[in-house]
Amino acid sequence: MEEVKRVSAEIQLSRNQPIKISGNFNVVGIDGNILNTDFNKEVYLCACGKSKIKPFCDGSHKG
Ligand code: FES
Q1: Which of 13, 21, 24, 49 is the most buried (most CB within 10 A)?
Q2: For the whole prediction, is pTM greater than 0.85?
Q3: Looking at the domain assignment, is residue 22 inside a domain?
Q4: For residue 15, how far is its CA from the centre of ligand 1 (angstroms)?
Q5: Number of domains in the chain
């Protein structure tokens, strides 16, 4: 029997910082594939447009 995963997430917005998402969730790309590898974790999404690994932050916003 497949385990049912419950989605719950907190999205934290900060000025000039990436978007932090923490909890139990998946990030689904435009092709429908899941981009994150762990269901229960935190990710940082690029909010500045400079990241080379979008949609994730690579720290380029600092430079
Ligand atoms: S927010 Fe970090 S690289 Fe864009």
Answers
A1: 21
A2: no
A3: yes
A4: 11
A5: 1
For residue 1, being part of any structural domain is answered with: no
Distance 9 CA to ligand 1 centre (A): 20
Could you tell me if residue 19 is inside a domain? yes
51 lines ligand 1 (CB under 6 A): yes
Residue with tokens 């917005």: 13
Instruction: Print the domain residue range for 16.
Output: 8-62
Angle made by CA atoms 7, 20, 57, in degrees to the nearest 5: 120
Torsion of CA 55, 34, 19, 48, to 10 degrees: 10
Q: Which of 21, 43, 46, 53 to mutate to test the pocket of ligand 1 (most atoms within 8 A of CB)?
A: 46
17 in a structural domain: yes
Is residue 10 very low, low, confident or very high in pLDDT (cuts 50, 70, 90)? Answer: very high
